[in-house]
C-alpha cells in the first residue's frame, strides 16, 4: 500500500466533499430572485431573525394590501394580505400577526385541539376556512406525518413585533369567492379569494 498516495486521495476526496457541501448550501439559500419566498416557506416576504430567533417581517411593501384585519386576544392583530386559489385544489392564505399586547405572545392556542396537531407546536394548525354559503368548514391541510401545511413559529412574538405566516386549506367549490378565516380566539376575518 502506497501511504503518501492514499493520503493525497483522501485529502482530494475531502476537498471535493467540502466543495459539494458549500455548493449545496449556497443553492439552498438561493430563491427565485423576485423577493418572494417559495410557497413552502413560512412567509410571503423574506424574514429576518431577531436575537431571540423569531422571524420578524421586514418593512411592509407598497403592494401588500390588507384584505382583512381583526383584533382580539388582548391586543393581538391578525392581518390577511393574500388568499389565493392554487392549481391542485387548495387555497393559500398569507398574512401577519402583530403583538400589541403587554407581554410576549406564543401561538399555543392557534395549534388546534386534535391530538395529531399538538406535534405542530406554536403554529396555525388549528386555523380553518368557513364557507357560509355552502355551510362547510375546511380544516388546514396536513402532510402524511400529520404536520400542518402552515407556519410553525420558532419562538415567541415579542411585544410590538410582527411575524409573517401562511396556511393552506382545501379549496371550496368554484363560485365560492367569500370565506371566513378563523384561528384561536380571534374573531373571524371575512375575505375574498383570488385566482393564483
UniProtKB/TrEMBL annotation:
Residues 42-62 have a biased composition (Polar residues). It comes from the Bacteria. Keywords: Signal. Residues 1-27 form the signal peptide. The keyword Signal applies. Residues 32-62 are annotated as: Disordered. This is Lipoprotein.
